[in-house]
Amino acid sequence: MDWAVTAFRLATSGAADATQVHTHLCYSELGEVLPAIDALDADVTSVEAARSRIEILDDLHTAG
Hints:
Blueprint: H1 2-12, E1 22-26, H2 34-39, E2 44-48, H3 56-63
Parallel strand pairs: 1-2
């Protein structure tokens, strides 16, 4: 997971401050990787959670 976060941050590090960095995640155990999602430091993260019965909402509530 650390490698993936480092790679994402490296890939987006050249973006200008005025550029909004978006990422999209789907079909995974999002609750298990919330710290890594936060570490991405993306401006916008969209999540596809329909197949998980929107369990991510519970995970976000617990984490927040």
